Amino acid sequence: MSALFERFQVRLAERAAQDLIRTRRIASSPTAPRQVIDGVEKLLFCSNDYLGLADHPALVQALQEGAERYGVGSGASHLISGHSEAHEALEAELARWARDCIPDARAITLCTGYMANLALLTGLGDREDAQIFSERLNHASLIDGARLARAQKSVYTELGELEAQLRASTAATKLIVSDAVFSMDGHLAPLRELLALAEAHDALLLVDDAHGFGVLGPRGRGSLAHCGLRSERLVWMGTLGKAAGVAGAFIAAHPSLIEWLLQTARPTIFTTASPPALAHALLKSLELIEGEEGERRRDQLELLRAHLVEGLAPLAAAHGWQLPHSDTPIQPLIVGENAAALALSARLDARGLRVPAIRPPTVAVGTARLRITLCADHQSDDIDTLIRALQP
Ligand code: PMP
């Protein structure tokens, strides 16, 4: 083998020695809560399809209708000819949702949440006179966006530290950036306090609501509405491939800021628009999320969450595992060492359940965990199955 490839082999071997090799498994059915993986049906506790909409018949039908009307590809970027009436309608609907919390909000959609975060941080932090204040636990896409941006950057772990950083900053544009729900922990960021700091220091507050959109707040309007926030300083980003069950993402904010992103943000300008059929299906998804069906599914999630915590608490106490408080259908079970988390995940796998071990660098060293996620299509019996399977 040429030395060129040997170097990769050596690095892969180093990862293997630290129990850091990940594998892709092959699914041959729709997702959550059961999925056929590598030919075997598994009970999943790892999907982000929180409301169980990813295989909802009304969405499958809407996608088919969309494909019939628009074809399967958009053919170009939004600014060329890829912006369909379905995208336009979806953006109008998301803007309507956002106006609960952001007066006069306008929204744009992007192909993925990862790209939306790159667009936000590079678009708003495009100059040296901007400063990004990023929470330490933020998602990788926000970290990567901050790395790409030309702005100054600082990382905070708690509000006092953020306040000191804001006070010391002379940047013309200040951007506080936080996940609304921390994706590996399930708890909410202190959004009210963050907004108060943004007000006090004339900053924008960018909130990544990937895991709150559709799940939290009245009618599933997400974390900002859940916390009762309202301000034109808010920039709301949400993903559409998790609770909304399809794919894509949106950014909603003051119209001048959205127009700026539309004109300048490279992750939306230099990429093909998502298929219009997806936007068509997403319109149906929003209808379900805000309607009775969404309410019912959110209620079920709440019941399941309480049942899960009740079952996990004695197990965690007996094994010395940590069971942090979660506000959402994401419940971590912190085991500690990578090998221990892997062994537990493998045991569950052998018992027909899929709960992957989350290891560094996704989480801090020594906090490897099972990240258990719930879906509204789970039944109480499924939780009992999980609890039983976790017993030695
Ligand atoms: N932000 C957070 C907090 C996420 O968890 C994720 C996805 N795991 C993303 C952004 C990226 O979203 P997408 O999957 O749509 O690229």
From TrEMBL:
Substrate binds at R22, H139, T362. It comes from the Bacteria. Residues 41-390 form the Aminotransferase class I/classII large domain. It holds the Pfam family Aminotran_1_2. Signal peptide: none annotated. Coiled coil: none annotated. It catalyses: 6-carboxyhexanoyl-[ACP] + L-alanine + H(+) = (8S)-8-amino-7-oxononanoate + holo-[ACP] + CO2. The modification N6-(pyridoxal phosphate)lysine is found at K242. Pyridoxal 5'-phosphate binds at G113, Y114, S183, H211, T239. GO terms for molecular function: 8-amino-7-oxononanoate synthase activity; pyridoxal phosphate binding. InterPro entries: Aminotransferase_I/II_large (IPR004839), AON_synthase_class-II (IPR050087), AONS_Proteobacteria (IPR022834), PyrdxlP-dep_Trfase (IPR015424), PyrdxlP-dep_Trfase_major (IPR015421), PyrdxlP-dep_Trfase_small (IPR015422). SUPFAM superfamilies: PLP-dependent transferases (SSF53383). HAMAP family: BioF_aminotrans_2. Belongs to the class-II pyridoxal-phosphate-dependent aminotransferase family. BioF subfamily. This is 8-amino-7-oxononanoate synthase. It comes from Inhella proteolytica.
